[in-house]
Amino acid sequence: xxxxxxxxxxxxxxxxxxVVKLILLNLFVFVTVIVLYxxxxxxxxxxxxxxxxxxxxxxADFDAFLHRPWTLLTNFxxxxxxxxxxxxxxxxxxxxxxxxxxxxxxxxxxxxxLGGLGGGLLFxxxxxxxxxxxxxxxxxxxxxxxxxxFAVILGAATLLPDHTFFVFLIGPVRxxxxxxxxxxxxxxxxxxxxxxxxxxxxAGAMVGFGFIKSxxxxxxxxxxxxxxxxxxxxxxxxKPNVTIPQRARATTTSAARHFTSSSENSAILIPNQDEIxxxxxxxxxxxxxxxxxxxxxxxxxxxxx
Length: 305
Prior knowledge:
This protein is mostly helical and about 300 residues long. The protein is built from 13 helices and four strands.
């Protein structure tokens, strides 16, 4: 058990591994909820467990939300059931790695949080304005990271639409088709028992798409989140926040020559044709996954010229 805690501690001490940290955080909350459920069930105090869950789930009723505003954040770190968290974390691992490779950990975390918040806000808005949802207002709550995950999926698909994943029994499938299928399935289930969850999916997808499109134009939606993170880091460490310049993640248009932020302020030069030919030769011999991070960034940069 000690080695597990050491491994987890080691992961959180690393940089540029936001995917792993987000997965571990979700797993920690999931295990904690399970332990509390077992304790309160065996102790015959289920009302205490229900009280805990009320502090974590986002209520559809706006008046109830005003009494528990923090649930707008906590709801997308809570999962009920092993399959719920398994598929969400598997998706985060697959698609999050793509985004982290090109945009870095800070932007991945920002997109995850914005997607979850966007899902919760649209959930609240629709349930409190559309007559269709009024009958379920008092009994409906929102939990799960699906809105945040959809933001990551659509973000990856918008950034690299032709990037392929190997799907079991199907073969290589482009990201844009996976994202399109996810949206179609969620839209088809907007009327049904999990309408609220699918509302969050659609909202997260819109956030993911808008985040990347805006970033390509030189506007970073994650700036407020970076500022909050830096504030708390300075508050708890008491030291100045020294940042190490990292390689820029991608080039997009002539108007926005490279993605930058306060902690990512150096750029990879535009690759010449010889470099691109060498990278393409490497792909033909060893596959796309054999490329280094810098080679992937150069290839993406060239594709945007």
